[in-house]
# Entry
Amino acid sequence: MVDMSKHMRDALNNVPTQKIFDFSQYTSTIDGIVQLTIGEPDFNTPEHIKKAGVQAIENNRTHYAPQRGTAGLLSAISDYLNDTADVQYDPKTEILVTNGVTEGAFAALSDIVNPGDVVLVPTPTFSIYTADVAIAGGIPVEVDTSATDFRLTPEVLKPYLDKYGDRVKAIVVVNPSNPTGVAMNQKELDAIADLVRGKNIFILADEIYSELWYDGQAASIAKSLPEQTILVNGLSKSYAMTGWRIGYLAAPKDVVSNIFKVHAFAVTDVATFVQDAAEEALRNGRKDYQPMEKAYIERRDVMEAALKKMGWQCTAPQGAFYIFARIPSFLEQDDEKLAYDMAKNAKVAATPGSYFGKGGEHCIRFSYATALDQIKVAMERLAKYCADRQH
# Structure
C-alpha cells in the first residue's frame, strides 16, 4: 500500500500543531480544574447584537453575501476605524470582511509571501503568524523582545532588517499583545514605521485587542504608515463574539484586491446574518466593551497581586486579558513541564510561555478572561502549590 502522506506539500512539514489548543484540550479533561488558558471571554454576546442576528435569519438573510462584505457592514467598519483609530479607508475598495482575524491574517500572508521571503515575527506572540508564513512557503524569523520587556523597538528590529535585507517581506505587529498584554503607544509605533518607511516591507497589524486598552489612548500603526500596513481586526474579543467568526482587513485598494482573491477562493464569503449582527455591534454597541473592560481590570489586579506575592515576576498588562509571568526560581524552570505539573497537582491550567516563541521560555501565560471567583480559587490553589515547593 502506498503511503500518500509522504507525497504532500513539503512546506507543511515545517508547520507544528497548535500546542496552545492541544494543551487546553488536555487540561479540560481534568476534573475540577480552573482554566486560565484560552483567550475566551466568559461574557455572552450583548443582547442587541444577538437579536440583530436572529432578526436577520428571520428575514431570510441566509443566502450568499457579497464576497467583500455587505455594504452596511463595510460602511460601519470604515466609520468605526475613522472614529476610533483616526484612519480612513474607502468601504468599497479598501476593506474586506473576513472569517475572523485568523482568516484575515492567513489571506494576507498567503497573498504577499513568495517562497523564500522572510517575515519578521516579534515574539512571544500567538502562534498563527509563523505557521501562516511557513504554509505560504516563506521563512518566519522570530524577533525576541524579552530583553526590552516585550516591547518592539527600532533597536531590536534593526539588526534583523540589516541581516535579511531585501528578503524581508513583512513585519508582524500585534498591539496590544497576546500573550504579554503590552500595548505600544503611538510614539513607539511611529518609530517602527519610520524604520521601514519607503521600503518594500509590509506591516501586518493585528489589533484584535484594540478595544481592551487600559492605559492611555489606543494607538494604531495604520495611522503611522497606512500605505504599507495591512490592518486586521475583529469583534471576537471586545464584543464577546468568538463563535461568530467575524473580522475584517483594511489596506490600500490594490493590496486588498489581491488579498480578496485568496479570501474568495478559500471561503467565498462570510455569513450574511453574522455580518448584520456585526453591523449592529459597530453601529450601536460602541460602549458594549466597557463593562467587560472594567471586569478585566479588576481581575487583572487581583491576579497580578496574588502572583507577585507568590514570587512570580509579572509584566503589568496594559491591554488584552493576559498576564505573562516569569517562573519563580524555586519552581521547575521548564515552562511546559511546570504547566503540566500545575494542571495535575494544583488543578490550575495556564499556558506554557515557550508556546509563544522565543523569549517566552521560563514564563507562563495566565488568562483572566474567566470569572473573578474562579481566578481567586486558582490563585489560592497556586499559592499552596508554590508554598509546598519552597520547603
Notes: The radius of gyration is 21 Å. DSSP finds 13 helices and twelve strands in the chain.
